[in-house]
Amino acid sequence: MAALPKHVAQIEKTLDSHLRRLEADRAALAANQKDRKRLEEDAKVQEQKISKLKGQMMEAKTNEQYRAFQHEIEYCEKEIRKAEDRILDLMGEAEPLDANVKKAEISLQEEKRQVETEKAGARERTAVDQKLLDELQAERKDLVARLQRPTYSAYERIRKKHGVAVAEVSDGRCTACQILLRPQFFQDLKNGDALMFCESCGRILYYNPPVSFEQGLAVHPHP
């Protein structure tokens, strides 16, 4: 239950990073288009100036005036070529940007669907886990009510220290710390007369006697 919100947050973070990348590409494409439009307008202005200068040049009275108009026209033509060259560069830059935006928009829609599916699944799993947790907590509350107070206090103290308060004894060893129990201590544990704690790690110990083949048949008879 604790892991699912983190998982959802992570996939949403990944989706958000992809959204920001798409927005950056969109912004770059929009800026590219804006620059191209500005350059096209500049070229039109220069063309209008050339048209006007040519008309004025026809009315020139002297060679100096004629050449001055000619220089102005040449400058305008140079500016137009510069604008057209830059427009071509921008068109080349726009092609991959446009392709990236289109590709990202398609993949982002699919990713959004996947994220929503993941979130819906996470909500369903959380609801199931919450129901199970409620049942386990109710069962635990019932068990705690049946314990003697000193026993429960000891359990809680050990649990807070080690995380797991109870350990099984197998082959004469505490399975938590792997320390071999003293023979008499082990025998007392087998008798099950009192609550016993590992002399090494302090956990509550329990012992399950091995089941023989005959006992197993008695419990689970062959059909």
For the structure shown, list the relevant keywords.
single chain; 223 residues; mainly alpha; Helix Hairpins; 2 domains; 3-stranded mixed beta sheet; 5 helices; rod-shaped
CATH class of the largest domain: Mainly Alpha
Gyration radius (Cα, Å) is 42 Å
Mean pLDDT: 89
Unreliably modeled segments: none
CATH fold annotation of the largest domain: Helix Hairpins
Alpha-beta content class:
mainly alpha
The count of helical stretches stands at 5
SS strand fraction: under 5%
CATH architecture of the largest domain: Orthogonal Bundle
Annotation, overall tally of beta strands: 3
What can be said about this structure in brief?
76% of the residues lie in helices and 5% in strands. It is mostly helical and 223 residues long.
Q: Can you characterise this structure?
A:
This protein is mainly alpha-helical and 223 residues long. The protein has two domains: 3-143, Helix Hairpins; 149-219, no CATH class. The protein has five helices and three strands, in the order H-H-H-E-E-H-E-H. The chain starts with a helix and ends with a helix.
